[in-house]
Give the backbone structure.
Amino acid sequence: MHGVVRRGDVGILYDPARAHERALASRWRRALQARRPQWIVRRNYPYRGTNDGFTTYLRKRYGDDAYAGLELEVNQKRVQDDEMPAADRAAIVAALCDALARAARPPQGARSATSGGSEAAPAASVGKAGLFSA
């Protein structure tokens, strides 16, 4: 960007002050590194995950208990002919699925709690890479 070469292949952006986002970003990063060990996967790079944008709006609207807003930044060197290779897209999606599956499992011995009648957050938001849809 602006003549500066980025030192990373993928950046996972999140708000480190939000425990759910911090944990999900960490799980996604580990799962992605397991699938693409040659990639440099960084947290809150090349931007801070707290910058103003759609995820910030949704954080304010739905709160920490109902919404975890992560964004994915992919370095353009991973794009060929204006498209990311299908195998790389699949690795990103599979890693996210693994991270979400681990988040959905309650700790052993934990009982689930039901929430009140609060408004539900959207299932997903589309990031700059356009890899996911709600």
Remarks:
- Strands lie at 10-13, 41-43, 71-74.
